[in-house]
Each structure stands twice: as structure tokens, then as C-alpha cells.
Amino acid sequence: MSTPETSRFVRLRVDLVLEVDDADAVSKAALRRIADDSGMPADERAHAENAVTEDTAEALAYLVDPFDLVSEVPGVDLAQASWSSEPIDYDPDSPEWDLDEDDGDEDDDEEVGVG
């Protein structure tokens, strides 16, 4: 019996719901991160500062970096990342927020060799 060739690439999907208790603190932290980015062009900096001041979800997008999540995992290099944030209506008692629910993509387990 032959073993199918396994890809070296793994898609890791993470879905977080964060409760923001202090939007001002989040915006200020994002502004500090932008200020510390010496390579950011002035016009992009002005746009970013405006965005994080006006929208807490944008501020979180500046603060949460996928590279930071995997940078210390041995044996892996981040090949590509994409993330977004948006305000949502969240009801933890609603069945649509059940994190254990199968999302209908049964091939995911086979792709990473789990199962």
C-alpha cells in the first residue's frame, strides 16, 4: 500500500471572539504600535492612526499579528497570513456560536494527518 504524498503546508484556522472592555485602551495601544513602526510611510501612518482611532476592530487588527502567534513554534515558518476584524453581535448561548460544532468540512482532519 502506498502512502499519499503529504504537503508541507498546513492551513491553521483560528476564530476568536474578543470582548472589549476598554476601547480607548485598545486604540491607544494600536497608536503606540503605529508610532513604533519606523518603516511606515507618513501618508499610511496618518490613515492608520485615523482608522484605529475611529474603529476598535481596526485597532485590534493592528495589535494582533499572526506572525507573533507562530514565531516561536519550532520547525515552522509563516508562509502567508490574512486576518480581519469586525464588530459582531455575540450571544454565547446561541447554537450558532458552538465552537465544537462540525463546520461541514470533513476533509480538514485528513489534510493534517489527524483522525
Structure description:
This protein has about 120 residues and is mainly α. It has a domain at about 15-70. Helix content is about 40%, strand content about 0%. It has helices at about 25-35, 40-55, 55-65, 65-70, 110. The longest helix has 14 residues, at about 25-35.
Keywords:
single chain; mainly alpha; 5 helices
Short description:
This protein is an all-alpha fold. The chain has 5 helices and no strands. The protein starts with 22 loop residues before the first helix and ends with a helix.
Record the SSE blueprint.
Elements: H1 23-36, H2 42-54, H3 56-63, H4 66-70, H5 108-111
Helix pairs in contact: 1-2, 1-3, 2-3
Distance between the termini: 19 Å
Beta fraction: under 5%
- Tally of individual helices: 5
Q: How many DSSP-defined strands?
A: 0
Shape: flat
Largest sheet: none
Task: Work out the helicity level.
Answer: 25-40%
- Taken in chain order, the helices and strands follow as HHHHH
Show unreliable segments: 106-115
Task: Supply Rg.
Answer: 19 Å
Summing up helix and strand content along with how strands pair, one would put the structural category as mainly alpha
How confident overall, as mean pLDDT? 84
